[in-house]
Each structure stands twice: as structure tokens, then as C-alpha cells.
Amino acid sequence: MCGIFGYLGNEDAVPILLEGLRTLEYRGYDSAGIFVPGYGAVKSAGQIVNLEKKLDKDIKGKSGIAHTRWATHGVPSEKNAHPHHDMSGQLWLVHNGIIENFRELKEGLLVQGIKFYSDTDTEVLIKLIGSFYSGDLLQATKLALKAVRGTYGLAVMSETEPDKIVVARMGSPIVLGIGKDGNFISSDPSALLIHTKNVVFLDDGEVAVVKKDSYEITTIEGVKKEKKSERIEWSHEAVQKNGYEHFMLKEIFEAPEVIENTLRGRLKLDTGEAKLGGLEAITHRLKNIQRLYIVGCGSAYYAGQVGRYMLEEYARLPVEVELGSEYRYKKAYPDKRALALFVSQSGETADTRASLEKAKELGLTTVGMVNVVGSAISREVDAGIYNYAGPEVAVASTKAFLSQLTAFALLTLFLGRERGMTQVEGIEIVRALHKLPETIKKVLATSESIAKVAKKYAHCRDFMYIGRAFHSPIAYEGALKLKEVTYIHAEAYAGGELKHGPIAMLDKNFPVMALMPQDMVYEKMISNIEEIKARSAPIIALATEGDLRISSVADDVIYMPKVHPLLQPIISVIPLQLFAYYVGVEKGLNVDRPRNLAKSVTVE
Ligand code: AGP
User: Of ligand 1's atoms, which has the minimum distance to the CA of residue 372?
Assistant: First the structure.
């Protein structure tokens, strides 16, 4: 939700802290703040640029902490922005997460005569730390955290101890960056890349004292933890726009390379099989699984829905797809012959993590499909499949979604070849996967014609997306993209559902995006759009190249290449990502930082 950054070293801290915040801004961007011992704290509402304007030019401090916020408790404002301080004004805290029992804690502190100036749960935490403080910041922080219920990734500093930052993690990520001439802390490794690739991931329940040339990790109970740094292979360039106007467009155009990275070393053409090294630890359990549960949120959930079609159709495996926010609370039963797969780009989504916890309690074998290396879910599952899509900065997921669908195709091949898929069928799929990056380049080459169609419909207030079979989840994902980056009311339905109600909404002001690849349900979709045409709703058809029939029933047609049916959804979603992007740009919106959203939802 929020972004935290910190630095201790020999350089002036302010430029380094601001650079860190800019890279983390996709995590939350409604207010920001900075604290530098010896100088004090500065906070502002709105984006980082507002904070920069308020900062004096020559702040000399060599250490500090900073924060960019996504409000949960207390409206976005300068008063509620972080960092927050204790009663003495000496201790300062930045926090990502939610202190669930902050009201009870606040009552206890009020009785002690402690005063409050903001509406935030975070201020209660620093006031609590302050109430335990008698010169040892680490001790005071641990005592306070023992009384806290909720989630946090936090960093706290004292005006009088500029050479140390105390950090702690419970549910929200904190990563240490181990540099040559200084050390860093961040909510996300991508903000560390400009300084170092050597990182240490904190686990839940861990606290660390970080100094410019050392770090010491213990548990809240005080048990010492030895943790070596690990190397992150991402480049700093990967978190830059590289000449594109927006991260979203850059990440859509990264698709061919992303698919190559997801496939690298995982295809065996000669035997028509897939190799998933990350699942080797559970091969014995995979042999006779009878059911797969897929759990995810938002786009990850829709990727799971496409995965279900792939696995049921080509790997003969019954699949249930669950929303993370529902699965965590619903009645579920132990099932020794089932596998639970958790899909998450960030690997930090709270509802998906809680569902993982539940599946483990039920004794299910757990697998993660995750993009961020070293993230919580990747460390909490029994085995995993990394996406290798590289850092995804734009809030709306695009390349990671494509990589998730590709990973599901690999999983389908991996399990399918154990469950009756023939070598011939397997080789056909491997060949089709090899051709995918080149085919995607052809789709991206049509971006200008897609932009034209997008401009034509950018004024619309309502939109409907329809698709059938493999393409019904893609209709939902297309509608989600449009909602996220254009704020247009977009509905999605499986084509066959229209007659059961939704068609009542349609009229000449309610265009329909119809996903019409020439597949087994093409004829059914044709009847659907004829029903729609009869209600004068404009139709944009996403159709297969060479489909001459479609232009007679649709107002606009976006053509796409035909590929293996298992992989067609990967091709089909790209024009929908571009369509949403160009409508958002046409409306002059910040497509990388849509209002009210954040890249990683680390609180419930
Ligand atoms: C997708 O564009 C959104 N950013 C959002 O729906 C996202 O897919 C969801 O929050 C899940 O995130 P995750 O994949 O990091 O778990």
C-alpha cells in the first residue's frame, strides 16, 4: 500500500530518499514525507513533487527515512502524512500496514496524558514506542510491537541517534539494501537497484537495527537471526520508462521479451514436455493430484480462471478458482489429493497470503506463481513457479498477466504429459509456445489502429465486454483494465449470459467489446452480437485475421493472429490492454497511477 525508504551513509540523504520515493510512488501516492535527523521532518499532501517543493535546498543530514502514502486510516492530508512523531518530538516513524487494535492502544495512552494530532493508526504506534523509550530505540520498539495486533513494515529513527534506523516486518515487506558506502531500507527491492543488488529480505516477526556499515536482525522476542544478503538480477533500467510515455505502455511492449524469460529453459521440444524446476521438491505429490485449487485477487484471479480452462481442457485436471478475499473466510476441507496454487505478481497481497495460511492449516500442498523474487508468498509456499516478468511498475497489471497465462500453459504441459496428453500434442504446444514472442510482435505492431478505435470510444460512460470459454475470463480482465485506467463503468459477461439480464442495459450509448476468435464457440458469439446489434449497441469485435464475415456485423474490428487454442487468450488480451491504455491517455488520465489504487494490496 505505502512505500518506505531509508538511508544511512556518507552522502547527503535527501536526494537519495527522494529518488527512492519516486521509484516507490506506484505503491501509494496521496501524500508523502521525509525525516532527516538534525533537520527534522517535512510532509505534504499529494504526489512527491509537492514534497520536493517544500524542502530546503541544502539539507546536510547523511541519514533519514521517507514515506509515500496510500491512506487507510485518516484522509490523505499533510497532518496524516508520515513520518509521525512521539510526545517528545524526538522519535519519528514511517509505517506501511494497519494497526488493528490502535483504538484500544490509544485509549490506554490517553489515560497516560499522551496527546494526538492526527487520525492515523500509525501515530498511535510511535506514541506507544515513545511511552516505552528510555534511551534504547530497539528495546522500545520491541516492547511496543508486543502490544500491537495488525500488519506493519516500519522504520523508526531518533533525533539523537542519527546513525541507526530500526525496522520491523509483520505482513508488509521490508528489504535491506547492502551497499558499498552505505545501507538502505525499502518496501520493495526495485527502489534499491540504483544503489545495490545485494539485499536482505526481513521475514514476519523480525526486527533489525541498520547502520551505515552493518545490520543486526533479531526476532521481537530477541532471538538473533543470521541472514546473508542475496543478489537481485533485475537492472535499474528495468524500473525506468526507457523513452515510453508511460510505464504501462512500456510494460505492454515488453511482452515478447517477458514471454521469452518466462519460457527460458522450461521447454523440451523433443519430448513435448515442460520443465518446472521449482516444482521438483513436490514431484512425488504432483503425480496423483486429483484436484487443483487456484487462489488469487484481481488480475491474478482472472489469470487463474484462464488457467482453469487450460488445465481442465488439456491436462484433464479438475480445477476450482477462488478469490483470495473469499477463500480465506469460506468453509474448506482438508484434501490430501489436492494442490493449492497461489497466483500473485507482487507476492505480498494480504488476502492471497491469508488464503495460503489457511490452505497450509488444511494440510494442502501449496505452490506459488509469483513474479517478485523473494516476496512473502514465494517464501511461504512448498514449491513455486517464478514468472520472471521483471519489475512491473504500472499499477494496472499487463506483462505480469501475460506471464501468468504463459506459466499456466507451461503447467498444463507439465501436468498434462503425466495425465494422458500425448507426445504429439505436447510437441505441438511446445512449438506454439516457441513462436509466441514473434506472434506478439505482430499484435503490438497494430497498436496505432487500436489507438484509433480507442479514441473513437473514449467519450463513452459505459462499456461491456463479452467472451466465451477461454475468452470469458479475458473479457473480465479487459473490463478490469478499462475500469482501472479510465474510470469508465465496464461490465463483463460470458457471452451466453446476456439474455439472462445484462442485455437489458444495452442501447446506442453502451458499446460492446466482443471477443470473437474463430474457435469452437465462434458461431455462438456471432448469435450474441446479432442480438446486441438488434439493440443498436455499437460493437467492437476482436477477431481472427482473415475473418471476412465479422465486419458485416461489427462497427469496428480489431484483428489478431490465430495461434494454438491453448495460447489464444495470451494474444487476445494484448489489444484489450492497449485499448484501455489509449482510452486512458485520450481522457488525459494518469494511467500509471490510477486514482484510489495501489500496486500491491498488503492490507485487507
Ligand atoms: C491489476 O491490474 C491490479 N493491479 C490488481 O487487480 C492486482 O491484480 C491484484 O491486486 C493482485 O495483485 P497481485 O498479483 O500482486 O497479488
Answer: 15
CB-based contact 33:82 (threshold 8 Å): yes
Torsion angle of the four alpha carbons 562, 510, 396, 440, in this order, in degrees rounded to the nearest 10: 10
Tell me the C-alpha distance between 411 and 368, whole Å. Answer: 12
Of the candidates 496, 491, 527, 497, the one whose C-alpha atom is nearest the C-alpha of residue 511 is: 491
Among 276-290, 420-434, 519-533, the range scoring the smallest mean pLDDT is 276-290
CA-CA distance, 9 to 494, in Å (whole number)? 56
Q: Which helix (H) or strand (E) holds 174?
A: none
User: In this structure, are residues 195 and 46 in contact, taking their beta carbons and an 8 Å threshold?
Assistant: no
Q: What is the pLDDT of residues 24-60, one digit of tens each?
A: 887 877 899 999 999 999 999 988 999 999 988 778 8
User: Distance between CA atoms of 302 and 472, rounded to whole angstroms?
Assistant: 9
Stated pTM of the model: 0.82
Q: Do the Cβ atoms of 109 and 61 come closer than 8 Å?
A: no
164 is catalytic: no
Q: Please tell me the distance between residue 61's alpha carbon and the centre of ligand 1 in angstroms.
A: 37
Residue 2 catalytic? yes
Shortest CA distance to 252 belongs to which of 400, 355, 97? 400
- From the CA of 604, how far away is ligand 1's center (Å)? 13
Closest CA to 165 of 316, 37, 260: 37
How many angstroms is it from 132 CA to the middle of ligand 1? 38
- Is the CB of residue 347 less than 8 Å from the CB of residue 370? yes
Cβ(322)–Cβ(364) under 8 Å?
no
The residue to mutate among 341, 346, 403, having the most atoms of ligand 1 within 8 angstroms of its beta carbon, is 346
* 3 state DSSP class of 541: strand
Contact 356, 342 (CB under 8 A): yes
What sign does the dihedral 422-561-404-195 (CA atoms) show? positive
What amino acid occupies position 549? R
Burial class (CB in 10 A: 0-12, 13-18, 19+), 491: middle
Q: What is the pLDDT of residues 342-381, one digit of tens each?
A: 999 999 999 999 999 999 999 999 999 999 888 899 999 9
Cis peptide bond upstream of 173, omega within 30: no
Is the alpha carbon torsion for 445, 447, 450, 455 positive or negative?
negative
- Mutate which of 601, 602, 604 for ligand 1? The one with the most ligand atoms within 8 Å of its CB, which is 601
**Marked catalytic residue, from 2, 197, 250, 297:** 2
